[in-house]
Each structure stands twice: as C-alpha cells, then as structure tokens.
Amino acid sequence: MKLFRKLVPWILLAFAFFVLPEILSQFRLNLFGRYFSLAIVALGIDLIWGYTGLLSLGQGIFFALGGYAIAMHLLLVTKNDFTTGANGLPKFFENYGVDNLPFFWEPFWSFPVTLIAIWIIPAVVAGLVGYLIFRNRIKGVYFSIITQASLMVFYHFFNGQQKLVNGTNGLKTSTTELFGMIVGSDDAQLLLYRVTLIILPFAYLLCKFLTSGRFGDALIGIRDDEARVRFTGFNPVPFKVIVFLVAGGLAGISGALYTVQSGIVSPQYMAISMSIEMVIWVAVGGRGTLIGPIIGAVLVNYLRSLVSEALPEAWLFVQGGLFIFVVVLMPDGIYGWLTKGGAASMLSAFGIAKRAKTYPSLDLDEQVNLEPKTITPK
Amino acid sequence: MPTPILELQDVSVDFDGFFALTDLSLSLQPGELRSIIGPNGAGKTTFLDVITGKVKPTKGAVSLRGESILGLSEQKISRLGVGRKFQTPRVFNNLSVVRNLEFAAAPNKTPFHLMFETLTSSVKDEVYRIMDYVGLAPYAKVEAGSLSHGQKQWLAISMLVAQAPDVILLDEPVAGLTDDETARTAELIKSLAGDHTVVVIEHDMEFIRDLGAPVTVLHQGQLLTQGMMEEVKADPRVIEVYLGQSDDH
Fold this sequence. Notes:
A: mainly alpha, B: alpha/beta, Rossmann fold, six-stranded mixed beta sheet, four-stranded antiparallel beta sheet
C-alpha cells in the first residue's frame, strides 16, 4: 500500500505522457501542456513560501524573463514572411523604425545560450534581488510588498519599451520555427507537451532534494523561527538567497514552456494578478508538500478553462470563492487535506465529526498505555 | 587571575532615553556557574541580548576569551561558542525531536554542507546520548510542536548542549515546570557547569538556592550586589528591591 502510494504520481505522469495525447483533442492537450508548465513555477513558490516562509508576489518577473528569452531566440532564428521584416530583423522592429538589433538580443542567436539563459537570467536576477532584501533583514509582509513593487517596475519597463521588446504587444512565437516545425503546429505542440512532462519531474526531484535533507530542515527552521536559526550559528541569508534563486530559475523554465505553448509572451505575464494567482494555486494544492502545488496549478487552471468556456464572466468569482473555501476549510490545501484526515477534518469544522486524536504525548506514555489493560474487568 | 571567558565592562544600553542597562560590569571564569536574579525590568534579558549580539550596547565593551565581540552578528557569536536558551522554549515545532537536535549539533553551518554532507556517526551518537540523558529518546521521531511544555524546555536545553558552546546562557529554564522537573533541571545544569560556563536567569528562588551558585542581583539595569544566596538574601538593599516590588502587587 505504501509502495502503491509512492508510485501513484509516477503512474499519473506516465498516463499524462502516453495516454492523454491519444484521448484528448489537440486543443485540450495544448491546454494541459500549459497547466503542467505552470506547475513548475508553482513548485518554486512552494519552495520559498511553503518551506521557507517567503511569500513572493513577484514570481511573474522571473516567469516572464524566461518567456522573453525563448521568444527572442525564436524570433531571431526564424526567417519566414510572418515573423521577419524587410530588414531581416523580427517584424515588429519595422513599426518603430529600428534598423539595428538592440545589443541584448545578440546572445539569443544561439540555441544553447538561450537554453541556459532561460533559467540563469531569472535565477541571477532573483539571487541579486533576494540578496539585497535578505541581507537587510527584510521579511514577512515587507518582503511581499517589495517583490510586488519590483514586479510593477518590470511590468512598466517592458510595457513601455516598444523599440526593445515590442512593449505591450509582446512577442509572438506561434508563427516562429523550432526544429524545422512551426511552433504553433500540432506536431510541435505535442513535442512541447512531452518536453514539459519530462522537465516537470526533474523540477519536482530538485525541490524534493532541497527540502528533504538537513538543508530542508534549515528552511523549515527559518520559516518557523529565523532568530533561533541565527542563535544556533546559522546565517539564514545564504539559505534564503539559494531557495529564492532556485525558485526564480524554475519560474524562468516554466515561463519559457508556457510561452511556446500559448504562442505569445507579453508584459501581461508580469501583471500583479498573475503572480497572485500563482500563489493561489499553491495554497489550493497545499503548501509545503511539493505534490500539492502541482495538483493546485493543474486543477485550478483546468477549472478556469471549464468555467470560462461555460460562463465567461464568472471565473474571477469562482476563483475568489475557491480561495476562501480552501483557506477556511482546507488550510493545508487539497493535498494536505487528503493526507491529513480528509473529509473528517472538514466535518469537524462544523462540529459534526470529532476534532482530533489524543494528545500525542499520551500515545507514548507507558502508564497511559498500560491503563486499558489494568482497568479492563476480567 | 586567568583571563575571564566572558567579560562586560561598563556596558550601557539606551533604548531612546530608557536605560535598560547602566554601566554594568561583570566577568565570568571558565567553568563557572552563575545565577542572575532581579525584579522585572531589571535588565536581565537585555543583558543576554547584549552578549548574544541581538542588541548593540550604547557604550562599553563585551569580550569573549579576551577578544571583543562587539558588533558581531548573532550567528558569528554563536559559532564562537555562546549558546542561548530563550525565555519561552523556542524549538522548531515542525521538525522532529531528533532533527531539532541534529540541526543544532551540525558542525558545519553552511548551506552546502547541509545539502551534501551527511552527519558523522559520532555526532549522531552524541545526539542520542543527549536524548537518553534527558529522557527524550522515546520521542525522537515526534514533532517538537506536540511535546509538552516541560519537554520543550528540556529539548531547548538539549539543543544548547548539542551545539556544544563554551558559554551557556539560560533565560528562565524552569518557567512553567513542575517541582519534579525543576529539581531535575537543577541537576542537569549543575552537571553542565565545569565543562561549560553557565549563566542562569531565574525568578524561582527555590531553584536558585538548589543550584548553590554565586548570585548576581540586577536592579534597574545596574549591578546591585553579588555573593552567595544566603548573603544576598540578607542584604537590606535586596530585600528592599524585592519587597518594594511586592508592595506594588
């Protein structure tokens, strides 16, 4: 039974990899590919929020940076009528009369460089921002506010830079070419879906490695009582910088996969609401569990698609309701709820089911354990 | 006289005009056990804050083994061998007892050591020895958050021992403990002295008498008197400070 429970995620992964492409329409499959790529950014948020207690409302920065990196590469190397302008540069440059490629586009001619840039640029930005914040002992709500403010800075910068990154219109990738295929084509999308499903377990295992050992203990220690960690001789700053950096890198990979599967990257990825939604997926799935954020990202986004198709205007209300529902009745999220008591714990919130087991130290008390034997009548 | 392990010279702490400590001087010899008492607001906790680097004194000098530790961060001072237990038992509630202790006992405190290095068996054995000694061994795998208050106090003290500091600072180690637990804690603390320099801050007079150690009395941030419990108790100034306080109640 224990082995079975361990295998479930991998069975589901194999199912998604081999079976879903056979039974889902191309449209639906593409949507699931996007959900799985969003699960990667959610994993990073679980690492920093669920384990280390850093509630970042700015993960959209790193998500979008990854997206821009891959989009810039695709636009540069693709030479077709849809994407290339008369001067040989990506077409949107024509609209603003730009004849020389901005310098920071140059490295993105190379595919290997791009593959590294997708995660290393967001990771470095996260590491720098994180170092400055953590070194100054800024935490809690102030950390959240600063990350959100940084998000707004990036958002407005990208929005305003038509001549550099096409401003508010963003970069369109669906007509570009990758491995000789049009990125928006069915074949390319199936490939990207599978690539996402290969990267997702690696992201999970990386987070698992970071959270399960003594390093993970330190993260939990920092979350629960940072001052105590200092008095035990640990400097919490490098720990926090490392996890924030890893979460940034994961967000970049997630953003790149999301961009090529949705066909565009735009400053909208750095909208305040997007980053808050990412946090909601983690809360709904269950923070501090690593499996939870994956469930949350896929489930919430699938629900969003279904609700938006049926009642286009209703989604925000459903999302808000869902969030309240989870916070009140499933404080550990869906996964935490399933592993800790399930339906009974929810009934207890209404006073129907019994609340808790015995006081844990009683279970270990030898005298208490002996009592039933001594008082049982013969 | 040998170099004191810990020495404070004319330390003052000024919280925006309120002097939590005024010209406090105190020195401790290696292996010494010292009790510190004083009414509420006497500056006992600020005294520990100054030593551990949480509060920077407005003036004065603090030195460890003859070298100044002023301006060092909490973690640096901790690594130099000063361990502290807080007024409330601060343990990591979401980690098991054994992981709490292993965390405190880690010899290398950098992220990369924690990621890639496994604890040596000698450290692990030491952790189990400590758990056996304080009677927490049956609870090794239990999350610290579900221990009783007394057990948490003991775990907090055990974590200090696992950290193996030269100077152990205990802020109210028996607050909220039963008489039996208090007596056992006194035994434990007496056994720590000698190998470690131990400073105990307490309100519980019975407990201080049990320790049988020299007592330093603080009052309004200043050193009132020092001596053995019986002498101190007979000091009219001490009586006045304590009676003066009990009048308010």
